[in-house]
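If it is no trouble, might I ask you for a protein's amino acid sequence along with its backbone structure tokens?
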Amino acid sequence: MKKTRFGWLLVVLMLVTGFTGCGKSEQNTKVAGTAAVAQTAESDKAQAAYPFALKTMAGKSISLQDYKGKVLIVNVWDTWCPPCQAEIPDFIDLYDTYQKKGLEILGVAGGRNGEKAVLDFVAQYGINYPIALLTQEFLDGFGGINAIPTTFLIDKKGNLVKTYVGYREKEVFVQDLTKLL
């Protein structure tokens, strides 16, 4: 009887959350967890994005300042997260289509399964934009991240325009970023 109740509870939770994201645990800046409800945070007032500084998987230092004059998508994800995996091909397509028009993408991987898992994933999916590992400083700077994927859209002036929590169809990003390019 208890197994049946648990099973139904699990099914209801999955339906309510819509399988849109994976939750996070702040322990050691690793991203882990359960499903989360998709949401978009929007503000009428432009606010400066957190001036992050990270190191890419290729060992290059990268910061918000490097993207001045470009529209930037910062996607926080991890290799084990199914909604994150589903978004990656769309980000690859977006980068191919809009890079010459001023779009840049930065992937920030949680790395829960280690750097090798991230590198293997990048190679397997053919990710064509820079990937950095998530740090506690980055998490704190963006006000904490409660679920992955979480994606930030930053305009050419370095202002945070939108925050997307959970999986989004490619068309959502196309609609929002074409207004900024």
Q: What stands out?
A: The radius of gyration is 16 Å. The CA atoms of residues 97 and 103 lie 9 Å apart.
